[in-house]
C-alpha cells in the first residue's frame, strides 16, 4: 500500500473542507510564508516569523544575492572608515539557526489568485502569506540623460554593491583640485539624510587625499534632512569645500552627459571629475508585478503592514507607503516585526499585539562627529502617526557627538544581528 | 494615630505591589515582553555583539532594568534615543520587558 504523506493528507482534507474555509490551524497543515527580498525588511521578517513560530510555520526567503551588502554604513566605506568586507552579510544564520528555507533566485512574478510566486529559474513556490520587501528600483528618466548605461560613469551607488566600490575608485582618481558633483534624488527616496552623509564622507576622503578639491551639490529639493546640522558640520570640518546649490539657484537639471562628465542646469554647465547622480525611485519590480502598488509605491494598513490591495500580501520597507516613517533600514526592520506578529497571528492563532514602530537615523559628518534623528510611531486611522521625536542639536559637545557615533556602531551590529543571526 | 494608619497603609501597598508585579510579569506577560523586546533588538544586540555605546540587556536583574527605564522615562537619565523609547512605555510594559530580558542568558 502506498503511504499517504502528511502533506498529501492535509491537502486532501483542505480540499474537502475548502468550502468551510477552515484555517490551516484546524487541519494541521503547516502554513507557508514566502518572503521576497532578504534585506532590512525581508530578512528581519523571515527571521521573526521562523524564530517566534518555533517551526509551526514554513518560511521561504527568496533573495537574488548570496551576500547582502548594507547601504547603511556604505558612506563610511566611501569615507575610508570601514572596509567593504565589513558591510557584507550572508544568509547562513537564517537557514541554520532559524530554519528558514533560503532560495537564491529572482522572484519574477506573483499569481495572487493562486497564491504562487514564480521564480526566474522556472520553479515556483506557494504561500498562505506573502511578504514583499524588495527595496527600490530607479526611475532613470527622472534625470534627463541618465540611464543604466550612464550609471557606470556617474554611479548612483544607491543600492549597495559594485556601484559603491566604483564610486569610491572614481573619487580617489579625481584630478587634484577637481570637482565632485552630486545630484540627490527627489522626494520620496530611500534614506533622506543619505546624500548629505555621502557628501560629508566624500569630503572626509578628499580632505586627506585631495584637499583643494570641491564638492558641488545640485539639489532638486529646496531643503533637506538635518540640513542645519550638516551645514554647520561642513562649515566646521570642510570650510570652503562644499557648495549646496538649491533649485531656486540652478533652475533644474537639464541634462547629464556621462561621456563629457557634464551636468547642465539653467544656471551653468558643471564639469565633474567624479559624479554621483541618484535618480528618483519607485518600489522594487516584484511589488509592481504583484499589483499591490498605487503608482510608484505600495499602500499598507498602518496596523499590520498588510497591503491595502490584497490582504494575503504584506509590503515592508522602502517599497511601502509608510507615512510618517522615512524609508530607512531601521524603519524596514521595525515594520517587519509588526508584520511578523500579524502574520503569525493569522496563521497560527498566536496573540497579536498593537503595532508600534520606531526609527533612528544616525549620520556621520566627520571622524567622531555623529548626529541622529529619530521618532516613535503608532498606527493611526489612515497612516502611521508620530508619537514623539528627537534630533541632535547644533553646538553639542564633542563628547556627545562622539557618543552618538559610538551608538551608531552598536546599532549597526545590533541591527545586522537582528536581521541575520 | 494618623501616622500609624498611614504607615500601615503604605506597608500594605508595597506588599500588594511586590506580590502582583512578579506574578503578572512571569506568566502571561512573557509573550508580551517578547513582542515588545523586538523594538529593543534593533539596537541592543546580545552581549557578544554589543560594545560601549549600547549595552546588552540580557540577563540583567529586573530591578536594574526597571529603574534604568524609569530614569529615562522621567528624563533624569540623559539619552535622546532612550528617552524617546522609554517615554511611551507604561509600567506594565516596563515590567514585561524587564522580566523578559532578565530571563535571557547572558
Ligand atoms: C547610502 C545609503 C545610506 C543609508 N544609510 C542608512 C542608515 O544609516 N540607516 C538606515 O536605517 N538606513 C539607511 N539606508 C537606507 C536602507 O538601506 C534602506 O532603507 C533599507 O535597505 C530598505 O530595506 P528594504 O528591505 O526595503 O530593501 P533592501 O534592504 O534593499 O532589500 C531588498 C532585497 O531584495 C532583493 N530583491 C529585490 N527584488 C527581488 C526579487 N524580485 N527577487 C529576489 N530578490 C529580490 C534585493 O537583492 C535586496 O537584497 C541607507 C541607504 C543608502 C543608499
Short description:
The complex is a heterodimer of chains A (421) and B (106). With 421 residues, chain A is of the alpha/beta class.
Question: What's the SSE blueprint?
Answer:
The complex is a heterodimer of chains A (421) and B (106).
Chain A: H1 6-17, H2 24-27, E1 32-36, H3 40-53, E2 58-62, E3 67-69, H4 74-79, E4 88-90, H5 92-96, E5 101-103, E6 107-111, E7 116-119, E8 124-126, E9 129-132, E10 136-139, H6 162-172, E11 179-183, H7 194-209, E12 214-218, H8 227-237, E13 242-245, H9 247-250, E14 253-257, E15 262-265, E16 269-271, E17 274-277, E18 280-283, H10 285-289, E19 298-299, E20 313-315, E21 320-321, H11 329-348, E22 356-366, E23 369-379, E24 384-391, H12 398-420
Parallel strand pairs in A: 1-2, 1-9, 2-5, 9-20, 11-12, 11-17, 12-13, 19-21
Antiparallel strand pairs in A: 3-4, 6-7, 7-8, 10-18, 14-15, 15-16, 22-23, 23-24
Helix pairs in contact in A: 3-11, 3-12, 7-8
Chain B: H1 2-26, H2 29-41, H3 62-73, H4 80-87, H5 91-103
Helix pairs in contact in B: 1-5, 2-5, 3-4, 3-5
Explain how this protein is built.
The complex is a heterodimer of chains A (421) and B (106). With 421 residues, chain A is of the alpha/beta class. Chain A has 2 domains: 201 residues, FAD/NAD(P)-binding domain (3-Layer(bba) Sandwich), CATH 3.50.50.60; 139 residues, FAD/NAD(P)-binding domain, CATH 3.50.50.60. In chain A, 31% of the residues lie in helices and 26% in strands. Chain A contains 12 helices and 24 strands. In chain A, the strands form 8 sheets. In chain A, strands 5-2-1-9-20 form a 5-stranded parallel β-sheet, covered by helices on one side. A 4-stranded parallel β-sheet of chain A has the order 13-12-11-17. Chain A is globular, with a radius of gyration of 23 Å. Chain A starts with 5 loop residues before the first helix and ends with a helix. The N terminus of chain A is likely disordered. With 106 residues, chain B is mainly alpha-helical. Chain B has one domain: Cytochrome c-like domain (Cytochrome Bc1 Complex, Chain D, domain 2), CATH 1.10.760.10. Helices cover 67% and strands 0% of the residues of chain B. The chains are: A alpha/beta (421), B mainly alpha (106). The site of flavin-adenine dinucleotide has 38 residues of chain A, from helix 3, helix 4, helix 7, helix 11 and strand 22.
Amino acid at each position: 500500500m502506498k503511504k499517504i504523506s502528511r502533506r498529501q493528507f492535509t491537502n486532501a482534507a483542505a480540499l474537502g473542507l475548502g468550502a468551510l474555509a477552515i484555517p490551516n490551524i484546524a487541519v494541521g497543515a503547516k502554513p507557508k510564508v514566502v518572503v521576497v527580498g532578504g534585506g532590512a525588511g525581508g530578512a528581519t521578517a523571515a527571521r521573526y516569523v521562523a524564530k517566534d513560530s518555533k517551526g509551526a510555520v514554513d518560511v521561504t526567503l527568496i533573495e537574488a544575492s548570496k551576500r547582502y551588502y548594507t547601504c547603511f554604513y556604505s558612506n563610511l566605506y566611501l569615507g575610508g572608515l570601514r572596509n567593504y568586507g565589513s558591510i557584507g552579510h550572508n544568509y547562513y544564520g537564517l537557514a541554520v539557526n532559524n530554519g528558514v528555507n533560503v532560495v537564491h533566485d529572482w522572484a519574477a512574478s506573483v499569481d495572487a489568485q493562486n497564491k504562487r510566486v514564480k521564480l526566474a529559474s522556472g520553479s515556483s513556490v506557494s504561500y498562505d502569506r506573502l511578504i514583499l520587501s524588495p527595496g527600490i528600483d530607479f526611475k532613470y528618466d527622472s534625470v534627463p540623460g541618465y540611464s543604466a548605461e550612464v550609471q557606470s560613469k556617474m554611479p548612483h551607488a544607491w543600492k549597495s554593491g559594485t556601484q559603491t566600490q566604483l564610486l569610491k575608485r572614481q573619487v580617489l582618481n579625481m584630478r587634484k583640485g577637481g570637482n565632485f558633483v552630486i545630484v540627490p534624488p527627489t522626494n520620496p527616496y530611500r534614506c533622506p539624510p543619505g546624500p548629505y552623509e555621502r557628501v560629508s564622507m566624500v569630503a572626509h576622503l578628499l580632505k586627506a587625499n585631495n584637499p583643494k578639491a570641491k564638492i558641488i551639490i545640485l539639489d532638486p529639493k529646496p531643503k533637506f534632512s538635518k540640513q542645519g546640522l550638516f551645514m554647520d558640520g561642513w562649515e566646521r570640518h570642510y570650510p570652503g569645500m562644499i557648495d549646496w546649490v538649491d533649485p531656486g539657484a540652478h533652475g533644474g537639471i537639464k541634462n547629464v552627459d556621462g561621456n563629457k562628465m557634464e551636468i547642465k542646469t539653467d544656471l551653468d554647465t558643471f564639469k565633474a571629475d567624479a559624479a554621483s547622480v541618484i535618480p528618483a525611485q519607485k518600489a522594487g519590480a516584484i511589488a509592481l508585478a504583484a499589483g499591490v502598488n498605487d503608482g510608484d509605491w505600495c499602500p499598507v494598513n498602518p496596523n499590520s503592514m498588510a497591503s491595502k490591495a490584497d490582504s494575503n500580501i504584506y509590503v515592508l520597507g522602502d517599497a511601502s507607503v509608510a507615512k510618517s516613517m522615512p524609508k530607512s533600514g531601521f524603519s524596514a526592520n521595525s515594520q517587519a516585526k509588526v508584520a511578523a506578529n500579524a502574520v503569525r497571528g493569522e496563521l497560527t492563532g498566536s496573540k497579536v499585539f498593537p503595532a508600534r514602530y520606531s526609527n533612528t537615523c544616525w549620520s556621520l559628518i566627520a571622524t567622531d562627529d555623529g548626529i541622529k534623528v529619530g521618532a516613535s510611531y503608532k498606527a493611526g486611522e489612515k497612516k502611521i502617526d508620530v508619537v514623539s521625536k528627537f534630533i541632535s542639536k547644533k553646538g553639542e559637545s564633542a563628547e556627545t557627538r562622539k557618543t552618538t557615533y559610538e551608538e551608531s556602531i552598536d546599532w549597526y551590529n545590533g541591527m545586522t544581528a537582528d536581521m541575520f543571526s | 494615630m494618623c501616622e500609624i494608619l498611614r504607615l500601615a497603609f503604605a506597608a500594605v501597598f508595597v506588599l500588594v505591589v511586590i506580590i502582583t508585579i512578579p506574578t503578572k510579569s512571569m506568566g502571561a506577560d512573557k509573550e508580551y515582553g517578547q513582542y515588545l523586546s523586538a523594538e529593543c533588538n534593533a539596537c541592543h544586540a546580545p552581549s557578544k555583539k554589543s560594545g560601549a555605546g549600547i549595552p546588552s540587556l540580557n540577563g540583567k536583574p529586573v530591578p536594574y532594568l526597571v529603574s534604568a527605564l524609569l530614569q529615562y522615562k522621567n528624563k533624569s537619565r540623559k539619552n535622546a534615543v532612550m528617552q524617546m523609547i522609554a517615554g511611551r512605555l507604561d509600567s506594565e510594559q516596563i515590567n514585561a520587558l524587564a522580566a523578559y530580558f532578565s530571563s535571557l542568558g547572558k
